[in-house]
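Hi U.,

Before I forget, here's the chain from the pilot set. I'm dumping it here mostly so it's searchable later in email.
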Amino acid sequence: MSDVLIAFLAALAAGLMTGVGALPVLFGRTVSRRANDTMLGFAAGVMLSASFFSLILPGIEAAETLYGSVPIAALIAGGGIALGALAVAALNELVPHEHFFAGREGAEAAALARIWLFVFAITIHNIPEGMAVGVAFGAGDLAKGMPLAIGIGLQNAPEGLAVALALRAHGYRRGTAFLIALATGLVEPLGGAVGAAAVAVSAHLLPWGLAFAAGAMIYIISHEIIPETHRHGRQNRATLGLTIGLILMMVLDVTLG
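Structure:
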């Protein structure tokens, strides 16, 4: 199989974990706010660890191999991180979307139905994850891509449950909440294919792509997930979840990568 197809399938498998995480809502199960914040913290920890161990460090290594200079490699990584964060920040400003508790943001947000605002929010938050998996697999090294795909899948499960529970809290039916949560994962394989295809065009895009994906994920962690987990005064639980997620992803990357 081509690297692009492998990346697509890996991102699809990781994305489908959002549906697995959302399954309890179909059976009327509820999760406490404390547990929800802990799971979101776990997701943030996995993403944070993946950003450094699976994206930034391999990106620096790839740039150093290409250019034979550590300072140049570091500058490329820094530039890629900045571009990734700026890209998501721009989407956050330009695309109408709705945060689960903070309300609506983006151009002409008031003119769109709530359901589409949620869909836009899901797209903003999950495409960078798919791109990260795609870029990692696009390099043609399964040992580097596999830990990231597993880590993204692990953090997608609690993220999917959190999305479904938030939708239920806003009055959506169980089936609708589940399907929308599942949709959060179905955008990831598209991002995976785009990321892998970009890297396949030129090896020189690999370090930029890895750092770009990391910057996008770091922005989401800081701008979306951590503030949400601290909103209800359970930051200790959220921090515990973040620490566990970070350690687990680090162990996966070191042992599998």
